[in-house]
Design goal:
binds nicotinamide-adenine-dinucleotide, Rossmann fold, 11 strands, binds zinc ion, single chain, six-stranded parallel β-sheet, disordered N terminus, about 40% helix, alpha/beta
């Protein structure tokens, strides 16, 4: 509304469209120990016909393990084992799509990703590229996917990334590491079976779990925070503290970390991550350092931004006897530092969330170099 000189209302302005996100959530989810056993029953109505297989992309850590016998293979379904040693790449997605196109005359009935964030992201990307031509790199960015992806199911075997709920799949492309952020990325079905996370090595359990913890800290301390994000972020943070600082038994801990991951993912869906993620992208781009450990390597040095969060993080590290590697950036050249800094500073929405629109007044290349040098 506006007032004229005589303080009379002269006209009403239409509310400005500030474009709230209208983002998709996973429409179906099963939670519970051994819920993986329901997979066959869940997939059955989604089978198009006997020539349209289900493709199971499975972390190769499960090769030869009992989990594989439980995969409900029928007709010409296929299991493809994939290593999670490296983060997913666009050309890896394209190679899997090509392999499927060469092997089958029909589109698959669906893609099922079984593993950590790496396998979940691959499954999402393959489901997209099967119906959208031109290769995965073409769709890195925001809302570039035109056509509906094929039916895809996510089954996490390690908790923390929130990849099971997010509308992105993070891929290393020829030019950049960037997500395919789209409404077609989100899984159609997720199965949360905490028993599948048994057997995760302790360090990895910590690093991937800390991804969730850092999602919470960055979301809850960000300028984009709103009641939606806060409600999920606070719950996820409480669960992380119970898991990493409480007295839970192993089964409770697995259940709670799985739900922390879910809530942490929901929290950032409606806000954004922050400083640790921006800088971790630099480490990952230049040195191939994986997301979870990369976040930890940066976060330990972020007292200036997240004092309380870093203090609790240090307690968690001590409690679980985690020693982070050091000297990672010791021998980097000026040019290499510059690459990391420019990748990190390119993550504009993350900085805006962390520090507001005028973030460049606080964040300079020198400041980031100083932090990287400590890692
Ligand atoms: P990961 O998938 O990279 O796996 C880490 C390690 O744990 C691997 O060695 C894997 O083989 C092993 N592992 C997984 N489950 C196991 C089990 N049950 N038993 C024994 N070993 C097991 O781990 P992550 O941290 O979940 O995922 C990292 C990836 O997720 C990165 O590529 C990152 O970019 C991506 N990510 C995506 C999103 C998203 O929203 N899409 C969010 C955060 C991170
Ligand atoms: Zn993360």
């Amino acid at each position: 509304m506006e007032l004229n000189k005589d303080k009379k209302i002269v006209k009403s302005k239409a509310p400005k469209n500030i474009g709230y996100r209208n983002f998709p959530m996973v429409p179906r989810v099963v939670f519970g120990k051994d819920s993986f056993d329901q997979l066959g029953e869940i997939l059955l109505p989604k089978r198009q016909h006997s020539d349209a297989p289900f493709i199971f992309l499975v972390d190769d850590v499960f090769e030869g393990k009992s989990l594989i016998e439980k995969i409900p293979l029928i007709f010409n379904d296929q299991i493809i084992f994939v290593s999670a040693d490296e983060e997913p790449k666009t050309d890896q997605v394209d190679a899997i799509v090509k392999q499927l196109q060469n092997s089958f005359s029909e589109l698959p009935s669906g893609i099922v990703g079984i593993g950590g964030g790496t396998l979940l992201d691959l499954a999402k990307a393959v489901a997209i590229v099967l119906t959208n031509t031109g290769g995965a790199a073409k769709y890195q960015g925001w809302d570039l996917v035109q056509k509906e992806s094929i039916y895809h199911v996510g089954i996490p075997t390690i908790s923390g990334t929130g990849a099971e709920v997010s509308r992105t799949t993070v891929l290393l492309g020829p030019e950049r590491k960037l997500g395919i952020n789209s409404d077609h990325t989100t899984f159609d079905q997720v199965i949360l079976d905490p028993n599948l996370t048994q057997g995760v090595p302790k360090e990895q359990w910590f690093y991937t779990g800390m991804d969730c913890y850092i999602h919470c800290i960055e979301s809850l301390n960000g300028t984009f925070l709103n009641a939606f994000s806060q409600s999920y972020g606070e719950k996820a943070l409480e669960l992380c503290k119970e898991v990493y600082l409480g007295e839970l038994n192993e089964a409770e801990s697995r259940d709670k970390l799985m739900m922390a991951s879910w809530h942490g993912g929901m929290s950032i869906a409606y806000s954004q991550v922050g400083v640790a993620h921006a800088m971790s992208y630099g480490l990952s781009y230049l040195l191939g350092i994986k997301h979870g450990i990369g976040n930890c390597l940066v976060f330990q040095h972020l007292e200036e931004f997240y004092a309380e969060g870093v203090a609790v993080f240090n307690q968690m590290m001590q409690r679980h006897d985690i020693e982070l590697p050091n000297g990672i950036c010791a021998n980097l050249s000026d040019q290499e530092f510059d690459t990391m800094i420019s990748v990190a500073m390119g993550m504009v929405p993350l900085w805006e969330n962390a520090l507001g629109l005028h973030w460049r007044m606080t964040i300079t290349p020198e400041k980031l170099r100083n932090i990287y040098e400590k890692i």
